[in-house]
Amino acid sequence: MKQERIGVYVCHCGSNIAGTVDVGQLSSWAADALEKRGVVVARDYKFMCSSLGQELIKSDIVELSLTRVVVAACSPHLHEKTFRTACQQAGLNPYLMEMVSLREHVAWVHSDKALATQKAKALISGAVERVALHEPLDPISVPIEATTLVVGAGISGIQAALEIADAGQKVVLVEREPSIGGHMAQLDKTFPTLDCSACILTPKMVTVGSHPNINLLTWSEVEAVDGFVGQFTVTIRKKARYVREDVCTGCGICMEKCPSKLIDQVYEAGLGYRSAIYRPFPQAIPKYPVIDKANCIYFQRGKCKACQLFCPTTPNAIDFEQEDQILQLTVGNIILATGYDLFDARRIPQYGYGRLANVFSSLEFERLCNAAGPTEGKILLRDGVSQPESVGIIHCVGSRDRNYNNYCSAICCMQSLKFAHLVKERTGAKVTNFYIDIRTPYKDYDEFYQHVLQEKVEFVRGRVAEVTDAARRPGEEGKLIIQVEDTFIGKQRRIPVDMVILSAGIEPRHDSKEVSRKFGISCNGSGFFTELHPKLDPVATMSKGIFIAGCAQGPKDIPASVVQGAAAAARVLGTIQQKSLDLEPVLAQVIDQKCSGCRICSNLCPFNAIGFDLERQISTINPALCQGCGTCVSACPSHAISGTQFSTEQILAQLHGLLAESFNGNGARTQSPAFSQAELV
Amino acid sequence: MKPSNEEPYGYYPGCSLEKNALAYNESTSAVANVLGLKFEEVADWNCCGASEYLALDILPAYALISRNLALAASSSGSHSLVAPCSACFLNLSKVDHQMAEVPALASQVNEALAAGGLSYQPGSITIRHLLDVFVNDVGFDRISSLVTHPLYELRVAPYYGCLISRPDYEGVYDSPEYPTGLDHLMTALGAEVVDFPLKTHCCGGHMTQISEPVALELIRRLLQNAHEYDADVIATLCPMCQLNLDVYQEHVNHAFGTNYHIPILYFTQLIGLALGIRAKELGFGREFVSAKRALAKIGKARPAPKKKRKPSKEALPMPQATEVEYR
Predict the structure, then answer these.
(1) Got the DSSP string for A322-366?
(2) Which of B199, B214, B316 to mutate to test the interface with A (most CBs of A within 10 A)?
(3) Rounded to an integer, what distance in angstroms lies between the CA atom of residue B1 and that of residue B3?
(4) For residues B32 and B40, what is the distance between their CA atoms, to the nearest angstrom?
(5) pLDDT reading at B121 higher than 80
(6) Residue A240: which of A327, A328, A326, A322 has the closest Cα?
(7) Out of B175, B195, B319, whose CB is closest to A270?
(8) In DSSP terms, which residues pair with A214 in a beta bridge?
(9) A-chain residue closest to B320, CA distance
(10) Is residue B135 predicted with pLDDT exceeding 70?
């Protein structure tokens, strides 16, 4: 076998590594001790990732004809790409470089310099053995279909769709409700500027509705997703509207004439009514109503058809014979902006929501304030007549509470302050906020808080124990009494009010886990979609070509949702621009002769990358979907799956090198820090 | 954990059920007979120390309580121990829980137990309150099917007291703050259950002996609330609550110039009535505030469903009630 010519490069990372590891000794040891194993040069340098550091490697590759490179620096998560590129620029296949994580695996976790240096030697020894067995690999190139699928048409999805469409690319925008707009369409004012939510949202909605590059599919849901980045095949169910979009003028007479009236649980948050044939709100996009089959008298009892009777258009726009349509589309990228569900305050029965009439949820209150809502914007008690003289606003309902959700819902403080302001402005009532902490980061938010303070809104710091109608003292009769420990004075207080608003938190959509499985991405414990990196890659996911935006990723307010929608769009446009995408060639491969077709691997694959060849009765791995995680490789009972860059031979060689350095010549263990299984791979 | 059909429940009546809460004991055994529940009393049990002893000296208190656990675990083939008294239930389950959490405590307690030739392995029996057995083992459907004398038109305020659902170690109640098991149980008997906002508030416990004004105020709140909701009776599941609300009702009336007359009955007494057991066997007549007048209210026929008051045109809809799923 031809002896490889290996270069070893030890990075100081300033004092990050050099502070704990004797880098000078390490590089001279590598040049010396590993010479027999093919190391022809070993160097240490202050910042290997700097241009000068990279130059060192590049010139060695050329001048010393290196065939393999080992860089002992930080985690490959950070600079693998840097050093691979450096190798490539010097004419070496980038996959012939191996990194040793000296900083994360050694320097940052140990303090004894001698032992740490010994461990570093073992890791470098392992890497040298392994890199010799690396094979040159070429990235897989996949073409990118230019059309993008955006799921969910709330503000985040709308923003993403518009950014892409305005850049001249096609978008399919799918929304499961009859209209686009999402939660933002339900709101009255938006903090901190108090501009009217509908006024700033509807222009965007109108643009979406008429954009030549947007194929808008409302009252539709994604049923299945197949394929991989660049070439996803999505199956979409376009539910029957029972209204012909080609003839309906959106006049709304059918909705007026419909005799079936029911409480609108979605758009009106249970506070208002709609008919069985409905359009959630006047500015809905599209303007066509839908028939809610479960509440339609004709569909349930076979008689009525009032809507059809009164429809003034010819031909008649009502079509009871319509059926669901199944569409199959090919898209290159997918953006999931599926939004949130409001925490159900009934889960905290001691707050009385659903039991005590004048306890309102935050979304109910939004509808109450909204000029298009059931009270035309008048803030009234549940009787629909009287105005409250005192209002209590309870923060953190269902959030920051280990009984429900541990996380902060991010919007409730500002939302509660906005409510306080609106109550003050419109009723002059006495307002008391019950909070645990006031969180007002971001531009102009704290100024808004200061403003509300000046409006003489009261603040009581303490988690509310209960809201009750059981009067105890004179003055409490007929009121809702908020029992709370005021933690500033260390006393229990009972504050009687006419109305209580529960600032309920943000929860993942009830079906977010199901959706994440459908699209092959993951969720965190709460059910929010998981991003590729929490700070540096917040809109990409572990599955290439699938991006996330808005509250589906985590609680956030409108500005942040818009930012994420736009960011996801920018990422998608980037790949469309390239027309094709290079995929990492580090992946798993089935060795056909060894595969018994047991399919243990296919259920374990987190990326749905493993299919089954019925004819040959063996599993197959889709290289575009495979992310090279290695789960199937280790699970296969007949060793029929091999990972490129992670072959058994490579891993055994690495172990061999590693252990050779951790033991002295007599077979007795030298004093070296213990290795955990995880560090070996 | 529901014991198998053959396996009896271990039964720890506690001191109260032998004296002031005799009616609770009598009604429990009468109802158990009809339902075929087997309660096997732990032999030679001792006092649980009530709520005071734990505050005085923790180790002897734990030893005192755990002796009952040790006896229950060693006797009979039962893996559960049922306590009808809320204080006993809390003490027993607290000790079991703490011994499991703090091994050092468990070994100290076992050292004390060893002096009497006993030992206890935490977690070896499940400690349960009597209400939990009715709600989760017997179930509302079974009870409902056995009702022969429904409690039509009797307005019942379900009172849980503060000890059984907080902390809810085993997670047997739908909500520790606002449980509804007893509500559903009373509904199953045909009674009309009133929403009782103070259902988990404190009755004052032994505060009557320490600071009577404080205790009377706590009792007054409960009576006032039940009265405001037009409750005919308060259904209770704790001897302490029963005693305070019943015996001190006259004191409250005297101190506050009120005129409450609300009988405080054990939930087992009400179940017994509905199952057609004679009042005498259920310990009726032992209460200070006589239940006679309230029980005379029980209607013969199912009342016509109340006409829902038509909400005015302006009124906004209430949040739609979702039925709480009961485990």
Answers:
(1) ---EEEEEEESEEEE---EEE--GGGSGGG-TTTSTTEEEHHHHH
(2) B316
(3) 6
(4) 11
(5) yes
(6) A322
(7) B319
(8) A171
(9) A354
(10) yes
Please, which residues bridge with residue A460 across strands?
A434
Residues B87 and B174 in one domain: no
Mapped onto helix, strand or coil, the DSSP state of residue A221 is strand
Q: Do residue B319 and residue A382 have CB atoms under 8 angstroms apart?
A: no
To the nearest whole Å, the CA of B255 is away from the closest chain A CA by 16
- Indicate the pTM of the whole model: 0.85
Q: Of the ranges A90-104, B47-61, B312-326, which one carries the lowest mean pLDDT score?
A: B312-326
Q: What is the pLDDT of residue B145?
A: 96
- Per residue in B176-185, pLDDT tens? 999 999 999 9
Q: Which residues contact A676 (CB under 8 A, 6 or more apart)?
A: none
Instruction: Report how far apart, in Å, the C-alpha atoms of B50 and of each of B16, B23, B43 are.
Output: 10, 20, 19
Out of A354, A368, A470, name the one closest to residue B319 (CB).
A354
Q: Does residue A670 carry a pLDDT above 50?
A: no
By C-alpha distance, the chain A residue nearest B218 is A472
B195 shares contact with chain A (CB less than 8 Å)? yes
Question: What residue numbers bound the domain in which B245 lies?
Answer: 140-296
Structural domains in chain A, sorted by start: 6-137+647-680 (3.40.50), 140-239+324-339+511-583 (3.50.50.60), 253-310 (no CATH), 345-507 (3.50.50.60), 586-643 (3.30.70.20)
Q: In terms of CA atoms, which chain A residue is nearest residue B200?
A: A350
Residues of B in contact with A468 (CB under 8 A): 197-198
Instruction: Please report how the helices A23-33 and A113-131 are oriented relative to each other, as an axis angle in degrees rounded to 10.
Output: 40
- Mean pLDDT for all residues in chain B: 91
Which pLDDT band holds residue B322 (cuts at 50, 70, 90)? Answer: low
CB A271 within 8 A of CB A373: yes
Which of left, alpha, beta for A181 (phi over 0: left; psi -120 to 50: alpha)? left
> If you count DSSP H runs as helices and E runs as strands, how many of each does chain A have, helices first?
19, 34
- Give B107 to chain A, closest Cα distance, Å: 31
Cis peptide before A374 (omega within 30 of 0): no
Structural domains in chain B (count): 2
ipTM: 0.86
Q: Average pLDDT of A7-26?
A: 96
Given CB atoms, is B301 within the 8 Å cutoff of chain A? no
| Neighbouring-strand partners of residue A41 | A7
Residue B175 has its nearest CB partner, among A271, A349, A353, at: A349
- What mean pLDDT comes out for the span A534-550? 94
Name the token pair of A147: 């059309």
Q: In chain B, whose CA is at the least distance from the CA of A379?
A: B316
Q: Are B179 and B134 in contact (CB under 8 A)?
A: no
Confidence band for B271, pLDDT divided at 50, 70 and 90 = very high
Q: Is there a single domain that holds both residue B67 and residue B179?
A: no
Q: In this predicted model, what pLDDT tens digit does every residue of A329-351 receive, in sequence order?
A: 999 999 999 999 999 999 999 99
Closest-approach residue (CA) in chain B for A352: B197
Q: How far is A491 from chain B (nearest CA, A)?
A: 17
pLDDT of res. B3 = 52
Query: In whole angstroms, what is the distance from residue A363 CA to residue A342 CA?
Result: 8
pLDDT band (50, 70, 90) for residue B324 = very low
